[in-house]
User: Fold these one by one.
Assistant:
Number 1:
Amino acid sequence: MTPRSRPMFQRRCLLLATATAASMLFALAPARAEPAFPTKPVRFIIPTAPGGNLDLLARVVAQKLGEAWGQQVIVEGRPGANTILATTAVAKSPADGHTALFTISGFVQNLAMHPNPQYRAADFVPVSLVASFPIALAAKAALPANDLKGVVKLAQQAPDKLSFGSYGVGSGGHIIGEGLNKAAGIRIKHLAYKGEAASFIDLVGGDIDLAYGSVGFYARQLSGGKVKLISVASARRLKQFPDVPTFAEAGFPEINLPGWGAVFLPANTPAPVVEKFSNEIRKIVAMPDVQAKIYEMGFEPVGNSSKEFAGVVEADLKAWGKIVRENNIKLD
């Protein structure tokens, strides 16, 4: 080695040593720690009163989550304002995963109908669908139609003579009923009730001809023989009622929109927390005992990733919104 080349060689050795030391430091440094979760009890805020199907479903999931995480998971009901009270409460909660919204598809319907719902879809990150809530169209036993084709024919023959009940203005049943009117070019009068039970009384009594409600509710009423199921809003025929076609099968795919029960977290919740939440819910929904309870309620178990659920929310916003706009449906 010549005297001239020695300094250059020394610089190369120094650079190599520095790079080697730096790589060793990076190798020895601990990976950036994920946020610890959960570090305290977790709350599920639901938009309905205690004792209802959503409350029961949330408690099934809460118990299993508590067992898996070693932390209490509390179900807290905040009914009111068509689910808006519970939704806005969670939107304002700390984005640390310890307060979650366990809600229904009214979350999307409010955004489609309400001029100022007080929240945006962007205020939340979807976690997972828990269950699909098929919506059933039931008819009084004496109605001379046993399928949707027959119902449409009756309505065409006598516009405004038939009536359908829903479980409230702006409910899924109301929206689907008006959607059927539009899609089939018929006029069946809408009557809003305060819940499924109230409309059922008038359906059995013959004061109304048709009514929309949850499959779980009507499954408990069919044994009396006073009502019959016409169609269901569901992705596929239901296990409990394999002979009842979906609205899509009956020729009306645009109104084949089931409701759902699902979990959201506030926007900006750390991604690892969202993923942990989503993964655990999917495991729970896949458990045979949990699936049995979900079917017993008249629901269909789902369970999906945050990304998949986000796609459902986006598609539902378009589908429910289209029916709402075309029929000028507004909340009172």
Note: Residues 3-32 have pLDDT under 50 and may be disordered.
Number 2:
Amino acid sequence: MIKIENVSKEFVSPKKYPGLKGAIRGLFSTEKVVKKAVDDISFSIEKGEIVGYIGSNGAGKSTTIKMMTGILTPTKGTCMVNGLDPSKNRRKNAKNIGVVFGQRTQLWWDLPLSESFTVLKEIYDVSDENYEQRMEFLNEVLELQDFFDKPVRTLSLGQRMRADLGAALLHNPKVLFLDEPTIGLDLVVKDNMRKAIKEINEKYQTTVILTTHDIEDIEELCSRIIIIDEGKKIYDGSLQQLKETYGAKLKQTMAESQPEESKEIKLADIVKEIYKHGIV
């Protein structure tokens, strides 16, 4: 479903100089600064997989997602989603994918949620029959009917995230990109979101790419994870393999007045050490 081969993305910007003199110098300088956000990464994802794409802030996760959605064009390498090059076939690719950015919304702020869904129905050419079927399913898993007629600006964060997920799934996409979809949500809403994503994946075999800093999202949803750091892929495999291979490399020393039984090393501990020490 997704194939990334030797993809890199560089951003070129004018060089900045400090102070007033530096600002004047910058007006006449031709020097450029090259920032390599993604550095020669390759991976493939099969239909129906739920893959966790994780890394520290600034590692290149969102840049990779934007290249797979067609928002950005790779500097080099090839990116294919369902047989299409996203940057060259943006409209066709858009009909095959759904995207949820935790920090942004695709809903119209002052319109009732129902109106936003009606507009998206027309944009994606969803028939009346398919729309009714999709809304029945989305109401079942996301419980949108409780706030379907309210303006988006009046929704709580949890309600808006559920609405955004529903909007991304309205046209039954083959691939769903989730960029920190549970950010800022309480435990109950997070759990409901995870259940909804699982059910959507099981019923429609939707391929899901999930980026998150919440390790519980990864453990609950993903059987495979890809770790990226400073634009480079440093791990691609199963959660169990990660724990077995690198969990043994962690050493924790604690002094207690009353020793207790040793605890299992959690995935969060392993990932933190990978970022900190580069033990992969």
Note: The domain at 2-96+173-277 is CATH 3.40.50.300 (Rossmann fold).
Number 3:
Amino acid sequence: MTAIPQTMKQLVIAAPGQVEWQDAPVPTPRPDEVLIRVSGVSTCPHWDIHITEGKPMFPGQDLKYPYVPGQPGHEAVGMVVAKGEAVQNLDVGQSVAAWRDTGEARQGFYAQFNVFREVDLLPISEDLEPIRIASLELAMCVEVSFQQLHAFTAMKGKSIAVAGLGPAGLVAIQLARYHGAVAVVGIDPVAERRELARQLGASDVRSGAAEDWPASRTDENAVDLAIDCTGLAPVVEFLLHRTREAVVLFGVVRQDIRYNGNLMWGPGVSLLGYGDHNRAAANTAYAAVEADALDLSTLITTTLPMSDYLSGVEQLRQKRAIKVLFDPWI
């Protein structure tokens, strides 16, 4: 095992539009934590874009600069190089992926090393390259929406629409197939993303224009279930009027959603909220990766040095990249 250095590089968003790739001490794990040599971190596009623009990710959230070092990096993969005395199930030399963002104001993964609690890490196969598994945390988040649908009705044999073919939507297309959907409709105004959705298992794609899919919950074009990955009220309402059973929310909602009386009958369509992040969802997502049913590498448009962070975020902002994988060692 290579000796652990005393210093490392970490990213700090010093102010909107301003970042520093700075020297910092390598952190020491607490009793329930491990020290990870980070091999790759994938972007969470909305989060990265919001923070670099000076906007909170969630409505009403406080936002202060300099931002917490290493944040908002949370979709990460690496190797355990040291562990606290209370750690029981992870060993030095083991490959791990972060399956849950703790939501705490603690150092993030935009760094060469990071400490993280054992309970928030999933051991993974050492032959999985970072591009194939760094986005596991996102896949876990999307799987939570499928848990909501499973609690509502059986998924197998149903048709499902996915609105918003960014990273989450492209994961949802694949997980819908993994959970037994017989038809999957991908909805997005960007033609390139619709084509990628087809490659990943969508049986049909639509632009989201009203004339492209006239509103009706009763004809053959309607779907049984739907997932919204946009958080946009007009998109959710679009789905409600074309879905027979339930629409589940994944995107962060910032607007009021109109649910009119006509949606109550026939029978009515339900609008489902989000659930809690949980390890079972992470295990399901990882099993889908291992079964080659979920290809997370298709989300990564490019790999960049961590020092090129702002360049990568600009590609996300201009929709020239779906996700960016940052390597802290190049």
Note: Helices lie at 45-52, 130-133, 136-152, 167-178, 191-199, 233-240, 279-290, 309-317.
